[in-house]
Design goal:
The complex is a heterodimer of chains A (431) and B (451). Chain A is an alpha+beta fold and 431 residues long. Chain A contains 15 helices and 13 strands. In chain A, the strands form three sheets. Chain A has a six-stranded mixed beta sheet. In chain A, strand 11 and strand 12 form a beta hairpin. Chain A is globular, with a radius of gyration of 23 Å. The chains are: A alpha+beta (431), B alpha+beta (451).
């Protein structure tokens, strides 16, 4: 009787994402993906500009990040206070984010205010003021943030890993720069970053909500009126170069944070989907993974352990993270090595394949749970190079993967001899 | 991107994102006392199934801090008819996600699945509501997990440790001053028997709320709830919650938390505040509007505008109010000064700006903008069904009703500028408050340590 509930598991899986995506081309030729949803009177719009912090010079590290934050701090004839007040009057929610590979703009606004919000957002994108007082105010906040990050073990682990993995490339840099580079950024550096990052040639647009294709096309053209054609050139891609081994970054705290991994697989590689599925079994951010079972459930060594494929615009890696008491670090690393070797040599079982396929195909539609999430997925899928019917084919592709294909991908991805570890903490027994 | 404001970001959406009254929410009580809430959202074939127990960290026996949270973990370790880990495995095998959370007032469990899996989820929740069963082979390693959790999310984060210390100083008697995760020295002594005792005392249909949200028909969902949860008898061990309450606060408390891991020193002050009361939320609504005006925007709210933009002495300054609790709410304010400004100077400036605000009154244009965002937030809130489900779950767990939740926007809209100023007078009386400095060790102390 220990299996009562298991009897209820339904094996057949008819569920599809069934997302009805309309490709939109604006009169001026910009493309967007739209999911029309008329039941709530608002629109979610997402813009992804590919490039991000990669476009800045070493000595201007942090320029794109500071520039992006300043887009919200005054535009046209409005200073920061006036711009914020206008955003509030329009009850719009505007977010400007930047990272290693992208600058992202997210907007949510009521249907009745759509045109006014687009005019307002256009000012932020085309005529940011970069007033001296705004620059100084946000610079102070950014420097304070850098001081906090320098004392955060998770950030330190990620930074050390990136430095070792991509030495000499923009990927090795901190996207928020260093105290020295940020202190030196001036208005002209910010204008250069702005012109280089916000352009038509590398933008990906997603929208969802109370709007049709024609209205969206005309809103997009209004929004992009005055935005330059070409963004700054991107640096060359980089390959993973950290040598196998262990780096310890001394840090005073009760636990150590461990970052680990090696080279990954590019997004456009034929094996990428198979590698993604294998990682879901191994350590992919849920409870039932091999790493969580081994380290958390069976041994109580950590609250969380996970692994992820990082497939960026210019380089890739396969990484994991775990936090554990300083006394456990040696054991945890040994167990990670064992799991890595087991996956490399034995791969996955057919039972694991069946379980993960059921999970992944069932969970996929859950992502599309609202206009805001859908708009963001629409932009991100284009940025990642998926075609428009991928959403409705993806589950079939996952189901079609054979055990042999998955294990071939596992054998290619997992290389226990190549593992590189960064430990931030006071690990016991390691040196 | 970098974090610019040290307070929790996006205070306005958090405070205001509440459901539209226009969309009916069903509420039904089964004969055994179980409350069922159904929220229909037919946009996608997805459902959220939640079970909330009116038992949390503030209901723990003395000396067993963390037992409510430990039990939450152990609820995944099997029942009389299922294996450890089987619950989550079945959810995953059905393509769903599940998790759980604990606060001082409640413990909640939820699954997000395709709508046609709702029956299975409810059947499993009903099973573990009464049939929990695990052995030492499960609870012993899990105690290691919760200790690692405390190490990771609390002891490795100086801001979280500071908050824990602030709350412990704010409450002189009430268990809101004890951390949800528990104190480490007590967590180390928790056992499976203690967790099972907490389960027997607090879990059962007569102390639970089921919230179903998503692609369901209300009547069909209620029928499912009746089928799965209806047959179980009420738990006779469940008694009305009684907790030690606060004595009069005669003197404000102050503390200084020093740690070498502090990157940005700041001042935080927490005031004991009223909660949202069923049937009369006006006092709480005025405090919520006060928080929005003082700290709801990173640019235009009073504290940011005056201390960051005008005077340039703050990196950021904030205000927030949480009235969603059973016994006490908290009103928080704070300021992180720029380099070269001391915490004492920053605190004095913050107090001066608040006093001036209360003297000069509300800027009516700002007040109107806040109200405009309030109305828009009703619409935006409809986009996130899981969050709506969670808001009803929290509200019912702390003693509010469906009408209180759907009437909250009305209560906020009824607040006048005068109400805000009147509510704000509480900030001038620091007796029921704690003021904390989070700071790096003083230079001379650092020198001593290194010798």
């Amino acid at each position: 009787m220990k299996r009562l509930i298991a009897l209820f598991v339904i094996i057949a899986f008819p569920l599809r994402a069934e997302v009805d995506i309309t490709p939109v081309t604006s009169p001026s030729g910009l493309e967007a993906w739209l999911v029309e949803e008329r039941s709530i009177p608002f629109i979610a719009l997402e813009l992804v500009f590919a490039g991000g912090a990669n476009i800045e010079a070493d000595e201007q590290a942090g320029a794109v990040s500071l520039m992006t934050s300043l887009l919200n701090e005054g535009a046209g004839d409005m200073d920061a206070q006036a711009f914020a007040a206008r955003t509030e009057e329009l009850a719009a929610r505007l977010r400007f984010d930047s990272g290693r590979d992208t600058v992202t703009v997210s907007a949510r606004f009521l249907t009745e205010d759509a045109e006014a919000v687009i005019n307002h957002l256009r000012l932020a994108l085309t005529e940011p003021r970069f007033d001296d007082d705004a620059i100084e105010r946000v610079r102070r906040q950014m420097l304070a943030s850098l001081r906090r990050e320098a004392l955060d073990p998770n950030t330190l682990a990620a930074r050390s890993f990136a430095r070792a993995a991509f030495d000499g490339h923009p990927y090795a840099r901190e996207t928020n720069g260093t105290p020295e580079t940020v202190a030196a950024l001036d208005r002209s550096a910010l204008q250069t970053a702005h012109q280089g990052a916000i352009a038509r040639d590398r933008v990906f647009i997603g929208a969802a909500g109370d709007i049709d294709a024609e209205q969206l096309g005309s809103l997009i053209d209004r929004l992009f009126d005055g935005i330059p054609e070409e963004s700054a050139p991107l640096p060359e891609p980089v390959s993973f170069q950290a040598k196998p081994g262990l780096e310890i970054v001394p840090f005073d705290g009760p636990q150590s944070v461990v970052a680990f991994g090696h080279a990954g697989i590019p997004r456009d590689d034929d094996d990428f989907l198979a590698a993604f599925v294998v990682n879901q079994i191994f350590g992919g951010g849920r409870f039932g993974t091999r790493l969580m079972r081994n380290l958390r459930e069976e041994r109580g060594l950590t609250y969380g352990v996970g692994s992820f494929l990082s497939a960026g615009l210019l380089g890739h890696s396969y990484q994991g993270r775990v936090s554990t008491d300083n006394a456990n670090v040696e054991t945890v690393i040994e167990l990670l090595r064992e799991e890595w070797a087991r996956m490399a040599s034995d791969g996955i079982t057919d039972a694991e394949r069946e379980r993960i396929v059921t999970y992944l195909t069932g969970a996929y539609p859950l992502r599309f749970d609202g206009n805001s999430s859908i708009a963001s997925i629409m932009a991100s899928m284009q940025y990642q190079g998926f075609d428009i019917d991928y959403v409705n084919r993806r589950n079939d592709m996952v189901r079609a993967l054979t055990l042999e294909e998955l294990n071939a991908a596992a054998a290619r991805l997992f290389d226990p001899e190549a593992l590189f570890f960064v430990v931030v903490g006071q690990p016991v027994g390691l040196n | 991107m970098f974090v610019r404001n040290l307070a929790l970001a996006a205070l306005l959406p958090l405070a205001f994102a509440l459901p539209l009254a226009a969309q009916p929410v069903a509420h039904h009580v089964l004969d055994n006392g179980l409350e069922v809430v159904v929220i229909e959202d037919r946009r996608a074939p997805v459902v959220v199934n939640m079970v909330w127990y009116r038992a949390g960290a503030a209901d723990e026996p003395p000396g067993q801090s963390g037992i409510a949270h430990f039990l939450e973990h152990l609820m995944f370790k099997g029942t009389e008819t299922t294996d450890p880990g089987e619950f989550s495995a079945v959810v995953e095998a059905n393509g769903g996600r599940d998790n759980a959370f604990v606060s001082w007032d409640y413990t909640g469990f939820f699954q997000r699945v395709a709508a046609d899996r709702l029956d299975l989820m409810m059947q499993m929740e009903a099973d573990r509501m009464v049939n929990l069963s695990f052995t030492e082979a499960e609870w012993l390693p899990e105690r290691g997990v919760i200790l690692e959790e405390r190490g990771q999310v609390l002891e490795s984060r100086v801001g979280a440790q500071f908050n824990e210390t602030m709350l412990a100083a704010l409450y002189k008697s009430h268990p809101y001053g004890v951390p949800i995760l528990g104190w480490r020295h007590e967590m180390e002594t928790l056992t499976g028997d203690m967790a099972m005792e907490f389960y027997r005392t607090h879990y059962g249909p007569n102390n639970a709320v089921v919230v179903i949200a998503g692609d369901v028909d209300t009547d069909a969902a209620l029928a499912k709830a009746e089928r799965h949860f209806g047959p179980m008898p009420p738990n006779p061990a469940i008694e009305p919650r009684t907790r030690p309450m606060e004595p009069p606060h005669l003197a404000g408390r102050r503390l200084s938390f020093e740690d070498s891991r502090v990157g940005t020193p700041y001042v935080s002050r927490m005031y004991l505040a009223p909660v949202r009361r069923s049937d009369d939320q006006s006092e709480a609504a005025a405090l919520q509007m006060l928080a929005a005006l003082l700290g709801g925007s990173a640019a235009t709210s009073v504290l940011e505008r005056r201390l960051n933009f005008d005077e340039g002495i703050a990196l950021s300054a904030w205000a927030s109010y949480n009235g969603l609790a059973r016994d006490y709410g908290v009103f928080s304010i704070g300021i992180a000064p720029v380099e070269g400004v001391s915490l004492e100077e920053a605190e004095a400036a913050m107090d001066r700006v608040i006093a001036e605000f209360l003297e000069e009154g509300v800027d009516l244009e700002q007040f109107e903008r806040v109200r405009r965002q309030l109305r828009a937030s009703e619409i935006f809130a409809l986009d996130d069904t899981q969050r709506r489900a969670r808001q009803f779950g929290v509200a019912l767990s702390v003693g509010l009703t469906i009408d209180d939740v759907t009437g909250w926007i009305d209560a906020l809209e009824a607040v006048t500028p005068d109400d805000v100023i009147e509510a704000g007078q509480m900030l001038l009386d620091t007796r029921a408050s704690v003021t904390g400095y989070l700071t790096t060790p003083q230079p001379e102390q650092r020198a001593e340590v290194s010798q």
